[in-house]
C-alpha cells in the first residue's frame, strides 16, 4: 500500500507574494488559511474574479508598485511612497510625476544600464578566456 502524499502548504503571505497581490486586500478565507501548491497552481492557471480584480486595480504590493513606476523598492521609500497603491494612483503618478519619481526613475535607469554594461564586460572577458 502506498500512503497518499499530502500536498505542501505555504503561508498566505508567501502565496500572495507569488501571486503578486497585496495580502490585506485578498478575501479573508485566503488570508486566514494555508495554501497548497496545487491550489496556487490553480489560482495561477484559472484566477478567480477577486484575483483578476486585485491584479487589475490593486492595491498593489510594494514590489509591484516599484515595477510599475520604474523605480527600486528603496526609491519608493526615499520618495515617501510607503503604502500600497492602486492602479489609478500609480497612473496619476505617471501622468504628473513628482520630482522624487523623476529622480528615482533616472537613478534606477542608470543602475540598470551600469549592470548591463558590467554583465556585457564580464561576458566578453569570459569569451576571450574560452
Task: Give an account of the 3D structure.
With 130 residues, the chain is mainly α. It has helices at 12-19, 28-31, 37-45, 49-57, 62-69, 73-79, 87-95, 99-129, and strands spanning 9-10, 35-36. It has a two-stranded antiparallel sheet with strand order 1-2. The longest helix is centred in the C-terminal third of the chain and has 31 residues, at 99-129. It is flat, with a radius of gyration of 20 Å. The termini are far apart. The model has no long low-confidence stretch (mean pLDDT 90).
Summarize the helices and strands and which ones pair or pack:
Blueprint: E1 9-10, H1 12-19, H2 28-31, E2 35-36, H3 37-45, H4 49-57, H5 62-69, H6 73-79, H7 87-95, H8 99-129
Antiparallel strand pairs: 1-2
Helix pairs in contact: 6-8
Give the spatial strand order of the biggest sheet.
1-2
Q: What share of residues is helical? A: 55-70%
Uncertain segments: none
The percentage of residues in β strands lies in: under 5%
Structural class: mainly alpha
Mean pLDDT: 90
Question: What is shown here, in short?
Answer:
The protein has 130 residues and is mainly alpha-helical. It has helices at 12-19, 28-31, 37-45, 49-57, 62-69, 73-79, 87-95, 99-129, and strands at 9-10, 35-36. The longest helix is centred in the C-terminal third of the chain and has 31 residues, at 99-129.
Amino acid at each position: 500500500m502506498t500512503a497518499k502524499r499530502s500536498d505542501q502548504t505555504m503561508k498566505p503571505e508567501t502565496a500572495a507574494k507569488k501571486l503578486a497581490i497585496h495580502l490585506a486586500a485578498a478575501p479573508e478565507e485566503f488570508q486566514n488559511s494555508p495554501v497548497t501548491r496545487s491550489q496556487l497552481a490553480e489560482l495561477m492557471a484559472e484566477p478567480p474574479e477577486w484575483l483578476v480584480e486585485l491584479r487589475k486595480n490593486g492595491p498593489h504590493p510594494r514590489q509591484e508598485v516599484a515595477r510599475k513606476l520604474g523605480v527600486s523598492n528603496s526609491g519608493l521609500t526615499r520618495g515617501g511612497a510607503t503604502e500600497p497603491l492602486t492602479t489609478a494612483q500609480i497612473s496619476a503618478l505617471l501622468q504628473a510625476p513628482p520630482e522624487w519619481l523623476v529622480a528615482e526613475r533616472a537613478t534606477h535607469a542608470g543602475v540598470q544600464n551600469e549592470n548591463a554594461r558590467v554583465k556585457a564586460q564580464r561576458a566578453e572577458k569570459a569569451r576571450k578566456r574560452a
